[in-house]
C-alpha cells in the first residue's frame, strides 16, 4: 500500500465500476507539467513506500524545472514489460534458472513468476529466403522453425509454465504493432491489496522501437535485458527526471504526402535539435490532424533521433483508434474518464511547460526518402536522382561515426534492435546531411554495367540499380493509409501493364495479420502479388537485415564488378551493410514509393519527371499516373477496415500454427535443460548460492583483464553480429558439432552463456592497451607474455583463483543497452570496473550482476596515474562495511612498490547496495521470495 503522503488516494467510478486512483492535482505544480511527466508523477504517487520511492521524489517531479539539466533521480515502476525473441530469450533463461535455484534452496519453484505482466512477441527470426511465390510465407516459416527449434521450445514452455507471461508465437506479427493494435490498455487496471486500481499503462521494452506505442498515449521506451528482468521481478528502475521538448504541430499534410514523409522530416529536424536522452511530446492545434497510425510512426522512430520517447497525449483520436482496433467499450470509457479526471486529456489551446519548443507546419512536408546510410539524412524526392548521381560520382557523404554516439549505437544494434543508452554529455554525431537541389548536376558517375541473364533474358546491371525493394517494418506496415496506398498504386500499375524490374527482390512482410486481411478485403492483394510483393512472413525481415539472399544471378553480377547497388525499404534504419552485406546504399521510403522504385529498377530514375515504364499500349507511365489520391485511399480504408477484423485477427493470437503447437514441450514447474543444445543452456549465476548472502569482502590480488581508453561502448564489450569460425565462440560451436553454415548470429544465441562469454570483449574494434597496436579481443597476462584471447586469459586467471578488474576511461558503457555487456563481464571473472566515468545504465547493470563500479577521482585517469595494467590491484574498505562506503582505496602493487589511490564507489542508491551485497539483482530477488 502506498504511503499516500500527499493524500492523493481517491476513487473514480466509470459505468458503475469503481477504481482506486491517485490524484495528480494533490501535488502542487502538477497542472503545468507535460503529459509525459504527469505519467511519471502518478507512478511515484501510487508506488510511494518511503524507502525506494519517497515523497522527495514526488516533489522532484512536481517542482520540475524545465530549464534544468536532468539530475533528480527517481524510482520508476512500469506496468508491464514487452520483449521480442532476440532480446527476450536471455530474460526467460534467467527466470527459468531462478526456478532451479529456488528448488535447490528448498523453496517452491512455482513461486518464480514475473511480478508484473511480461509479453513476448516472436518477430526477429523469420528471414525472407523465399519470395515472389505463393508458398513463400509457408516456406520461410518452415525454415524459421528449423533454425530456431531450441529457442522456441524454451519460449513455448515458458508460455505454459509462467503466470503473467504471454508469448505471441512466430508468424503473427511484429511486437510493436501487436502492442499498438492489441496489447496496450492505455489505462491499466490491476488488483492490489484487494483493491482494483486504474493508472496509466506504461512499459519498458527490450527493443529500441518500443516508443511506437507512444502514439497511443502510452509511455514506454527501450531498455536492456537486465533492466527488463528487474522490472519483471518487481524492482523499480532508477532514472533521471528528463528534460521535455515540446513539438508543436500546426497545419495539415499536403496532398500526395505520407506518414513516412512526415517522420523523415521530423527525424531530420530533431537530429538538428539534439534531443538525446530527452522526452519529446507533441502538442498544439495540428495534433488533431495527425491520425493515430501516423502518430505511431512518429513514436516508432524516436531511437533514430535519440529521444527516450516521442509521445502524443490522449484525445478523441486515441478513443477512435481503440474502437477501430476492437477494444471493449468499457475500457474506452475508462480511458476517457481517467484522462479527463487527471488533467491528461489533450487541449490544443493549452501549452504545458517545456524545456524547449520545436515547431513544424505540416503543410511544409514533401515527398522524401532518406539515406543512403543514416535515417536522418532526408532527401526530397525531387532531388533523389541527382543526389544518387552525386554520391556515385564521388561527392563525399561520409560522416564520422564516432564511438559512443547515436549513429554508432544504432548501427551496432543490428540485428537485435537493442535499445540505445548513450551519454548526452559529449555530442558525437554529425548533423543531418543537407542535399542541395543541384546535387549531382553535370557529374559523370562511373558506369560499369554487367550483363545478367534472368529467365533467359539479358539485362544490364549497374551502379545505382535497385536489388531489394521491401515493404517491411512496423514503422509503416502499422499504417493502413500507406499500405492501402501501396496496394492502390500496385493495382493501377498492373492495370497499365507495368511490372517490377526482374533484378529487384521484392517482399511484403507486415507487422500483423490484420494488414493482409484488409488488403484482401480491398481486393488489392492480387495486384501486389502480380508485381512481386507477395507475402513472405509476419516479422521484421529486411528492416533488421533478415532480407535473405539476393537473386543468385544478381548477386554474382554485383560481386563481379563490386557494384554499388541499392535497397529501398519502408523501414527505420539503413546503415551500410546492415540491410544486406552486398548492398551499400539503403534508402528509407514509404510503401507506395518502395513499389514505384521496384517498377523503375534504379535510383537514377527521377520519379517525378521520368517514366517508370511503358504501358501495355506502348505509352510512358509516370508516377503521377498511378499515385492514388488522399480521397481514394481514405475511401478504400473506410470500406475495408473495421473493428471486427482486429477482434477476429487477435482472437487466437497466442495459439500459433502447426509448427508451434506441434513442438514437444515438457510439462512441470522446471524446464528440462538439454546438454546438447547450443542455443539455450542453464546459466551459472546461482551456482553455489546459499540462503544468506556471504559477507562483502575486499577484492585482493586482482589482475587487469583489459586496460581501455575513453568511449568504450557496450558494443565493444558485448557479443554482436556474425560468429567467425576462428573466434572462441566459433571454435566452441564447431566442437559441439555445429557446422559454420549453421552458426547463426550472437543475437540468436544469447540464451547460451557458453557462446556469449566467448564473444565478450571480442569486438574487432576493441583496443586493449595491454596489447598496443592490436585491435580485437586480445590481452596479455604479463608484459613479456604471449598474446592470447581475453577468454583464454580469463580462464587461466580464474583457474588460479585470481580475481580480475577492467580499467577504462570516460563514458564507459555507452551504446546500445545490451545485458551481455554486464553479464559477460561478470562471467569472465571481473569483480570491479575502475573508470574515469560511466554511462548511467551500464553502471547500474554492472551492479545488477554483482560487479563493483569505481570511479577515479576528478582529474585522475589510468594514464595520469601511470598505470600499465600489469600491476596487482587490491580494493579495500569493503569488508565489514554497513552501509558500503562512498570511497574505497585501490592498493596497486608493482615490482615491490605499493601505492594507494582513492576512488569513488558508484553504488548510488539503497536498492543498488542491496543488489551488490546479495551478489546481483537476481540473487537479491530470489532471497526475498524465499523469505516471503
What's the pLDDT, averaged over the residues? Answer: 93
**Unreliable stretches covering 5 or more consecutive residues:** 398-402
Give the number of DSSP strands: 36
Structural class: alpha/beta
Rg, please?
Answer: 27 Å
What strand line-up does the widest sheet have? 27-30-32-33-36-35-34
Instruction: Tell me the β content.
Output: 15-25%
- Could you say which overall geometry the principal axes of the C-alpha atoms support? globular
The largest pleated sheet is described as: 7 strands, mixed, barrel
Number of helices: 31
Approximately how much helix is present in the residues?
A: 25-40%
Brief sketch in words of this structure:
The protein is 32% helix and 18% strand.
Lay out the secondary structure.
Blueprint: E1 9-14, E2 17-22, H1 35-47, H2 55-62, E3 73-76, E4 80-84, H3 85-104, E5 118-121, H4 136-161, E6 165-168, H5 175-183, E7 187-192, E8 195-200, E9 202-205, E10 219-222, H6 225-232, E11 237-240, E12 244-250, H7 259-273, E13 279-283, H8 292-300, H9 302-305, E14 309-311, H10 316-324, H11 329-341, E15 356-361, E16 368-370, E17 378-380, H12 384-392, H13 406-412, E18 420-421, E19 450-454, E20 457-461, E21 466-471, H14 474-477, H15 480-495, E22 505-508, H16 513-521, H17 525-530, H18 552-561, E23 566-569, E24 585-588, H19 591-600, E25 613-614, E26 620-621, H20 623-626, H21 630-640, H22 643-649, H23 658-661, E27 699-707, H24 714-717, H25 728-735, H26 753-759, E28 778-779, E29 788-789, H27 790-799, E30 804-808, E31 815-816, H28 820-827, E32 830-835, H29 840-848, E33 852-856, E34 872-876, E35 887-894, E36 897-905, H30 910-917, H31 921-931
Parallel strand pairs: 4-5, 4-9, 5-6, 9-10, 12-13, 12-15, 13-14, 21-22, 21-23, 23-24, 27-30, 30-32, 32-33
Antiparallel strand pairs: 1-2, 3-11, 7-8, 16-17, 18-31, 19-20, 25-26, 27-34, 28-29, 33-36, 34-35, 35-36
Helix pairs in contact: 1-2, 3-4, 3-6, 3-31, 7-8, 10-11, 15-19, 15-21, 25-26, 26-28, 28-29, 30-31
Amino acid at each position: 500500500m502506498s504511503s499516500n503522503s500527499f493524500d492523493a488516494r481517491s476513487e473514480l467510478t466509470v459505468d458503475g465500476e469503481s477504481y482506486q486512483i491517485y490524484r495528480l492535482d494533490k501535488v502542487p505544480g502538477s497542472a503545468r507539467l507535460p503529459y509525459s511527466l504527469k505519467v511519471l508523477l502518478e507512478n511515484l504517487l501510487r508506488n510511494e513506500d518511503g524507502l525506494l520511492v519517497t515523497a522527495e521524489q514526488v516533489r522532484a517531479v512536481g517542482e520540475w524545472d524545465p530549464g534544468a539539466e536532468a539530475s533528480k533521480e527517481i524510482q520508476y515502476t512500469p506496468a508491464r514489460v514487452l520483449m521480442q525473441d532476440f532480446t527476450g530469450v536471455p530474460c526467460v533463461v534467467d527466470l527459468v534458472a531462478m526456478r532451479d535455484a529456488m528448488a535447490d534452496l528448498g523453496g517452491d519453484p512455482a513461486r518464480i513468476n514475473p511480478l508484473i505482466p511480461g509479453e513476448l512477441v516472436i518477430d526477429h527470426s523469420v528471414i525472407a529466403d523465399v519470395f515472389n511465390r505463393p508458398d513463400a510465407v509457408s516456406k520461410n516459416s518452415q525454415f524459421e522453425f528449423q533454425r530456431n527449434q531450441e529457442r522456441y521450445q524454451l519460449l513455448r514452455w515458458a508460455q505454459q509454465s509462467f503466470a503473467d507471461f504471454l508469448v505471441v508465437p512466430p508468424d503473427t506479427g511484429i511486437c510493436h504493432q501487436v502492442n499498438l493494435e492489441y496489447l496496450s490498455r492505455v489505462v491499466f487496471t490491476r488488483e492490489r491489496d484487494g483493491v482494483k486500481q486504474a493508472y496509466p499503462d506504461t512499459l519498458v521494452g527490450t527493443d529500441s522501437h518500443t516508443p511506437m506505442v507512444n502514439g497511443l498515449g502510452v509511455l514506454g521506451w527501450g531498455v536492456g535485458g537486465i533492466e527488463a528482468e528487474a522490472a519483471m521481478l518487481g524492482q523499480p528502475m532508477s532514472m533521471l527526471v528528463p528534460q521535455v521538448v515540446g513539438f508543436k504541430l500546426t497545419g495539415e499534410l499536403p496532398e500526395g504526402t505520407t506518414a513516412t514523409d512526415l517522420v523523415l522530416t521530423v527525424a531530420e529536424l530533431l537530429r538538428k535539435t539534439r534531443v538525446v536522452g530527452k522526452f519529446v511530446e507533441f502538442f498544439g492545434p495540428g495534433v488533431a490532424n495527425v491520425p493515430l497510425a501516423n502518430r505511431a510512426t512518429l513514436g516508432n522512430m524516436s531511437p533514430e533521433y535519440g529521444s527516450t520517447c516521442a509521445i502524443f497525449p490522449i484525445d478523441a483520436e486515441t478513443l477512435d483508434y481503440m474502437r477501430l482496433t476492437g477494444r471493449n467499450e468499457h475500457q474506452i470509457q475508462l480511458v476517457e474518464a481517467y484522462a479527463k479526471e487527471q488533467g491528461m486529456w489533450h487541449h490544443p489551446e493549452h501549452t504545458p511547460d517545456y524545456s524547449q519548443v520545436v515547431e513544424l507546419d505540416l503543410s511544409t512536408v514533401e515527398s522524401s526518402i532518406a539515406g543512403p546510410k543514416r535515417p536522418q539524412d532526408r532527401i526530397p524526392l525531387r532531388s533523389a536522382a541527382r543526389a544518387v548521381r552525386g554520391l556515385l560520382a564521388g561527392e563525399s557523404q561520409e560522416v564520422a561515426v564516432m564511438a559512443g554516439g547515436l549513429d554508432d549505437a544504432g548501427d551496432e544494434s543490428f540485428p537485435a534492435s537493442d535499445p540505445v543508452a548513450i551519454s548526452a554529455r559529449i555530442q558525437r554525431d554529425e548533423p543531418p546531411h543537407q542535399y542541395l537541389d543541384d546535387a549531382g548536376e553535370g557529374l559523370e558517375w562511373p558506369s560499369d554495367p554487367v550483363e545478367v541473364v534472368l529467365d533467359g533474358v539479358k539485362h544490364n546491371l549497374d551502379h545505382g540499380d535497385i536489388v531489394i525493394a521491401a515493404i517491411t517494418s512496423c514503422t509503416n506496415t502499422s499504417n493502413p493509409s500507406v499500405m492501402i496506398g501501396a496496394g492502390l498504386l500496385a493495382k493501377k500499375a498492373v492495370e497499365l501493364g507495368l511490372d517490377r524490374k526482374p533484378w529487384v527482390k521484392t517482399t511484403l512482410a507486415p507487422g500483423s495479420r490484420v494488414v493482409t486481411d484488409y488488403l484482401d478485403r480491398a481486393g488489392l492483394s492480387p495486384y501486389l502479388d502480380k508485381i512481386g510483393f507477395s507475402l513472405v512472413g509476419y516479422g521484421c525481415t529486411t528492416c533488421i537485415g533478415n532480407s535473405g539472399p539476393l537473386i543468385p544471378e544478381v548477386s554474382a553480377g554485383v560481386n563481379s564488378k563490386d557494384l554499388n547497388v541499392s535497397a529501398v525499404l519502408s523501414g527505420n534504419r539503413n546503415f551500410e551493410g546492415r540491410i544486406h552485406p552486398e548492398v551499400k546504399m539503403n534508402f528509407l521510403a514509404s510503401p507506395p514509393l518502395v513499389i514505384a522504385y521496384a517498377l523503375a529498377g534504379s535510383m537514377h530514375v527521377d520519379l517525378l519527371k521520368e517514366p517508370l515504364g511503358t504501358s501495355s499500349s506502348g505509352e510512358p507511365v509516370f508516377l503521377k499516373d498511378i499515385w492514388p489520391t488522399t480521397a481514394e485511399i481514405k475511401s478504400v480504408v473506410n470500406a475495408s477496415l473495421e473493428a471486427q477484423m482486429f477482434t477476429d485477427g487477435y482472437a487466437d493470437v497466442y495459439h500459433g500454427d502447426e509448427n508451434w503447437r506441434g513442438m514437444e514441450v515438457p510439462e512441470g514447474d522446471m524446464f528440462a535443460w538439454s546438454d546438447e543444445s547450443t542455443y539455450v543452456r542453464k546459466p551459472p549465476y546461482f551456482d553455489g548460492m546459499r540462503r544468506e548472502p556471504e559477507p562483502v569482502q575486499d577484492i585482493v590480488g586482482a589482475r587487469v583483464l583489459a586496460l581501455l581508453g575513453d568511449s568504450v561502448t557496450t558494443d565493444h564489450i558485448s557479443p554482436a553480429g556474425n560468429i567467425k569460425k576462428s573466434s572462441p565462440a566459433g571454435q566452441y560451436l564447431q566442437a559441439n558439432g555445429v557446422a559454420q553454415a549453421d552458426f547463426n548470429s550472437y543475437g540468436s544465441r544469447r540464451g547460451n552463456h557458453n557462446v556469449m562469454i566467448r564473444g565478450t570483449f571480442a569486438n574487432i574494434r576493441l583496443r586493449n592497451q595491454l596489447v598496443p597496436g592490436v585491435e580485437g579481443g586480445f590481452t596479455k597476462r604479463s608484459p613479456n607474455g604471449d598474446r592470447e584471447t581475453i577468454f583464454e586469459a580469463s580462464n587461466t586467471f580464474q583457474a588460479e583463483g585470481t580475481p580480475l578488474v577492467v580499467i577504462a576511461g570516460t563514458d564507459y558503457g555507452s551504446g546500445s543497452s545490451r545485458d551481455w555487456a554486464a553479464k559477460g563481464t561478470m562471467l569472465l571473472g571481473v569483480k570491479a570496473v575502475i573508470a574515469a566515468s560511466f554511462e548511467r545504465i551500464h553502471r547500474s547493470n554492472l551492479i545488477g550482476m554483482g560487479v563493483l563500479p569505481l570511479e577515479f577521482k576528478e582529474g585522475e585517469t589510468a594514464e595520469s596515474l601511470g598505470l600499465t595494467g600489469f600491476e596487482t590491484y587490491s580494493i579495500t574498505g569493503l569488508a565489514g562495511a554497513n552501509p558500503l562506503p562512498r570511497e574505497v582505496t585501490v592498493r596497486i602493487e608493482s615490482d615491490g612498490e605499493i601505492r594507494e589511490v582513492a576512488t569513488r564507489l558508484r553504488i548510488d542508491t539503497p536498492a543498488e547496495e542491496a543488489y551488490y551485497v546479495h551478489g546481483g539483482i537476481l540473487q537479491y530477488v530470489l532471497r526475498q521470495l524465499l523469505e516471503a
